């Protein structure tokens, strides 16, 4: 008698499946960015340039908001870079899994590295220690491919439609929901929780600072608090 064994999906298919829930939040998020770019006086070409060149929603929103407020170019660039500093931490976390790939594959992965692709990869790779490098790259491609294409499409739609999107749709709900879905499962240790609480408190207390520069201070304070809590825990463990 032959027993049929169920086969697990390929890493590519699993990546497509794991990334699917994030697309639901990505659509209104991208539409909202297109609308915001339109309201800031940026045409379709400039909006698409943002999404193609930066492909990071939070820093894109920050930059467009500062442009709309008339902030100096240097402030716009530095603030957007600061918001995207988390990508450096994402890269460091995924380097042990993808660092052996050829340069061109690492370049493509770094281009498509944003919050949802990192969240999926960071959760999947430890669950599958037997995956080869090719499997890990295939999984990453599955999470990133649809997200990149959809982000560009909805950015264009938001820019073209602009003010025709009615306010009652409340597209801005997508951003906090998307970030909460990615951040909440990762708050597993005391240093992580301390850093998260510090960033929230700092952002709220410094909301009055011009050009959203309070976000920079809150981010630095959060990293410092998280590192200090981790240092004290490590010292206590050695005692």
Could you characterize what this model shows?
With 239 residues, this protein is mainly α. It has two domains: 11-185, no CATH class; 187-239, no CATH class. 74% of the residues lie in helices and 0% in strands. Mean pLDDT is 82; it is low at 1-5.
Quick rundown:
Helix content is 74%, strand content 0%. It is built from eleven helices and no strands. Helix 5 runs parallel beside helix 7.
Describe the secondary-structure layout.
Layout: H1 11-39, H2 44-53, H3 57-68, H4 73-83, H5 86-98, H6 103-111, H7 115-127, H8 133-161, H9 174-183, H10 190-205, H11 214-238
Helix pairs in contact: 1-2, 1-3, 1-7, 1-8, 1-9, 2-8, 3-4, 5-7, 7-8, 10-11
